[in-house]
């Protein structure tokens, strides 16, 4: 879970400090979205170009671009008429109480090549280079998310980020959370409860299991309780936020916190750039991959990035698993109180320190979770038509994600990742890796149907 302080308080007073960095993230985000739209368009046209090229080679291609375009227009018009007839039949059946008739799917507009691209295929019998390039970029999953992270990281670790931009780029990272709230418009409660049930099983088995494993392993390795506590919470539950929540309970020192965060971010960064390719190599479906990263990647920003990198459907599943995981922050705080405060005090024969459990839990529990549930409820009540969800996904969701991921990329500094070290680092990385491997086996065994979000 992304969290911790943002380094500067959101207020009008601090706006001048944040503005340069926010503007930089906005510029990078806009450029990345333009890249994404262009590459996606070229990839879409590439698939159409393959069909046209095959028709050309078989001698069945339309004689001219005008004939080619008219053929697509006539086909779309026919499908539209068929849809209207099916829709009328569906409404009539619904009015009579007949639930056996399924709602028809509205046909999408056909892909029609540009005239210059069509003519090049027809004359040269070759697909234009730009369409090949777009297909290649999409096959490597170099979407706007990947570009923002890769370019941002490259800038931060080569030329560096001038001081004037730092506050704003750090402040941009939490803007991913409004995007997560917007995702609620894609869910029905049946999805949340179904995927949430399996997500709960994964969380109990792997998230809580990892926390308990690290607690006992670190104790045997004689790791400082403060460091062990925040490391276990971060690696077990949801990265930075869980570590922040547990830190006051275990009296973690600043050094402990930064060691734990370094370990969490290092593993998450490696997972972010490798999991999508591992998922493809293992043949994971979109819902299965979403369930895997939702369980295995520790930081929400990196989790959302990896799932978005894979596919939108993966993101929908990963988000539900993450919501379930975030809900375990109160339990992880209670575990920390027991294991690091109450148990040692009992073993020593005296009463432990007094801790306001409610205050610790409520002050650290992410509020955006409630926003997500409100959006799910609104969708269940019929507030969002398909065109509304299209606007939310195409505009608002990508806008927030682009701004947030620009901030994430510009703040991945190799020096910060080096802060993890020693036996605690080894315990954290081994535990996180073990969780990732076992979670991959579990979600693949459960299968896609359990994690598929229908919306």
Summarize the structure in short.
The protein has 455 residues and is mostly helical. The chain has 21 helices and no strands.
Radius of gyration (Å) = 25 Å
Give the mean pLDDT. Answer: 80
* Poorly predicted spans: 1-8
Q: What is the makeup of the main sheet?
A: none
Strand percentage: under 5%
- SSE order in H/E notation? HHHHHHHHHHHHHHHHHHHHH
Count of discrete alpha- or pi-helical segments spanning 4 or more residues = 21
Q: What would you call the shape?
A: globular
Termini, distance in Å?
Answer: 24 Å
Strand runs, count? 0
Taken together, the total number of domains comes to: 2
User: What structural class do helix, strand and pairing data support?
Assistant: mainly alpha
Helicity, as a percent range? over 70%
Describe the model:
The chain has 455 residues and is mainly alpha-helical. The protein has two domains: 15-37 and 142-451, no CATH class; 38-139, no CATH class. The chain has 21 helices and no strands.
Features:
21 helices, mainly alpha, globular, 75% helix, single chain, 2 domains, disordered N terminus
Topology readout:
Layout: H1 15-57, H2 65-95, H3 115-124, H4 129-139, H5 144-157, H6 163-172, H7 176-183, H8 189-220, H9 225-238, H10 240-246, H11 254-281, H12 286-296, H13 300-310, H14 312-326, H15 329-348, H16 357-364, H17 368-380, H18 386-409, H19 414-417, H20 422-446, H21 448-451
């Amino acid at each position: 879970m992304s969290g911790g302080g943002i380094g500067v308080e959101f207020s009008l007073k601090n706006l001048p400090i944040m503005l340069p960095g926010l503007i930089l993230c906005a510029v990078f985000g806009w450029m990345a979205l333009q890249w994404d739209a262009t590459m996606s368009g070229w990839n879409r046209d590439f698939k159409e170009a393959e069909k046209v090229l095959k028709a050309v080679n078989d001698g069945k291609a339309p004689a001219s671009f005008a004939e080619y375009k008219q053929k697509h227009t006539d086909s779309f018009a026919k499908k539209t008429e068929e849809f209207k007839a099916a829709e009328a039949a569906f409404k009539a059946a619904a009015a009579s109480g007949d639930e056996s008739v399924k709602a028809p799917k509205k046909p999408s507009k056909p892909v029609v090549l540009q005239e210059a691209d069509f003519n090049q295929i027809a004359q040269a019998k070759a697909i234009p280079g730009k369409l090949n390039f777009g297909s290649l970029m999409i096959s490597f999953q170099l979407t706007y998310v990947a570009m923002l992270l890769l370019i941002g990281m490259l800038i931060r670790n080569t030329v560096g980020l001038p001081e004037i931009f730092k506050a704003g780029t750090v402040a941009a990272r939490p803007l991913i959370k409004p995007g997560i709230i917007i995702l609620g418009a894609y869910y029905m409660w049946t999805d949340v409860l179904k995927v949430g049930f399996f997500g709960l099983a994964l969380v109990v088995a792997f998230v809580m299991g990892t926390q308990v494993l690290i607690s006992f392993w670190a104790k045997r390795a004689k790791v400082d309780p403060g460091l062990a506590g925040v490391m276990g919470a971060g690696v077990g539950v949801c990265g930075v936020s869980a570590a922040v929540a547990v830190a006051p309970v275990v009296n973690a020192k600043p050094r402990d916190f930064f060691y734990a965060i370094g370990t969490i971010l290092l593993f998450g960064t490696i997972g972010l750039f490798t999991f999508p390719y591992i998922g493809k190599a293992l043949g994971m479906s979109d819902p299965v991959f979403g369930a895997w990263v939702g369980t295995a990647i520790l930081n929400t920003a990196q989790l959302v990035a990896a799932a978005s990198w894979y596919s939108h459907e993966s993101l929908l599943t990963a988000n539900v698993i993450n919501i379930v995981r975030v809900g375990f922050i109160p339990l992880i705080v209670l575990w920390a109180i027991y294991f690091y405060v109450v148990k040692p005090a009992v073993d020593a024969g005296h009463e432990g320190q007094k801790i306001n459990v409610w205050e610790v839990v409520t002050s650290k529990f992410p509020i955006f979770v409630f926003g997500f549930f409100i959006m799910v409820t609104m969708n269940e009540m019929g507030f969002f038509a398909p065109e509304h969800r299209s606007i939310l996904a195409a505009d608002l969701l990508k806008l927030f994600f682009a701004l947030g991921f620009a901030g994430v990329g510009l703040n991945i500094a190799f020096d910060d990742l080096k802060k993890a070290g020693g036996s605690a680092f080894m315990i954290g990385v081994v535990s996180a890796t073990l969780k990732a491997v076992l979670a991959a086996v579990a979600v693949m065994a459960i299968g896609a149907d359990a994690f598929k979000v229908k919306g």
